[in-house]
Design a protein that fits this description.
- This protein is of the alpha/beta class.
- Helices cover about 45% and strands about 15% of the residues.
- The chain has twelve helices and eight strands.
- The strands form three sheets. Strands 4-3-2-5 form a four-stranded mixed β-sheet, with helices on one face.
- Helix 1 (about 5-15) crosses helix 12 (about 260-275), helix 2 (about 25-30) packs across helix 3 (about 35-45) and helix 10 packs across helix 11 (about 225-235).
């Protein structure tokens, strides 16, 4: 069992039983660790204790963060910045393919890909000389086959596998080793609307959440909340474009293509870092 597996199991349990306020010893026993070792592992992973972490999983906390996020997003848009989050447009440049490139569906393009372990579970990554074009999470151990959703995006591309490079890219993405003079470049297939939504998502600061309606208003299409949700669901570069920071206006955390629990884990991790 990996560290992520242990933390994911505990958070899944806390998500369903937080009102019982389970004891630390019970949680440690669930992942076959001593109390002290479990406490150290959890604190090193989340930056807070299990008890402190618990509050970040409640709906009330999501609602509180949501109340503050409206002004945060609006202000960021007004001044042309993306807030204090580590994954924003000062460090991430997002470029869409041209109509001609879109039509070719990857013909003549060389894409390197591979699997790696991240702090949020197994993931697959892919990139070309233009930038990262794929990041997806997987519940099971990686195989040697090219991810189906990557093939669907670029069916005519030439593929080359590199586990070593995938692991290095994974470290860069999830350990925030960005430098202003070395931005992470993204290159994605997208409609004009999708690109607009994804750029708006990059403006949501780490540790904050927004509703689909707020994102719709921020791009000048206040009636397009449902379409915004569809664009979030088709995000080809999970986590980097933070679709996990968009939730329902009720504060309920649902609708994440890589699982509700994983979405809660990522949000709770970001909230704990910013707390």
């Amino acid at each position: 069992m990996t560290d992520y597996d242990r933390i994911e199991k505990i958070i899944r349990y806390l998500d369903n039983h937080y009102t019982k306020q389970p004891h630390l010893a019970d949680l440690a026993g669930m992942v076959d660790l001593s109390v002290s070792r479990f406490h150290r592992l959890f604190h090193s992973w989340a930056g807070v204790t299990p008890k402190q972490f618990l509050k970040y999983l409640t709906v009330e906390d999501a609602k509180a963060r949501l109340r503050h996020s409206a002004s945060v997003l609006d202000t960021s848009l007004e001044v042309g910045l993306s807030g204090p989050g580590r994954l924003h447009d000062l460090f991430v440049t997002l470029e869409g393919v041209s109509p001609g490139e879109f039509k070719k569906r990857g013909k003549g393009l060389v894409i390197t890909w591979g699997y790696s372990k991240s702090i949020f579970g197994h993931c697959s990554l892919a990139w070309s000389e233009r930038g990262v074009c794929h990041l997806a999470f997987h519940d099971n151990n990686a195989s040697d086959s090219i991810p189906a959703e990557l093939l669907a995006q670029w069916p005519k591309a030439e593929y080359r596998q590199s586990t070593i490079q995938a692991r290095e890219l994974c470290k860069r993405i999830f350990k925030s080793s960005y430098k202003k003079n070395e931005p992470l470049r993204l290159w994605v297939r997208a409609s004009a609307f999708q690109l607009k939504v994804w750029k708006a998502l990059l403006r949501i600061p780490e540790g904050h959440v927004c509703t689909y309606g707020q994102v719709a208003r921020s791009i000048g299409n206040p009636q397009s909340a449902r379409a915004v949700g569809t664009a979030c669901g088709s995000n080809p570069v999970g986590f980097i474009i933070p679709c996990h920071r968009v939730i329902r206006r009720t504060g309920i955390i649902e609708g994440y293509r890589w699982g509700r629990t994983r979405k809660k884990v990522i949000l709770a991790k970001e909230a704990a870092i910013q707390a």
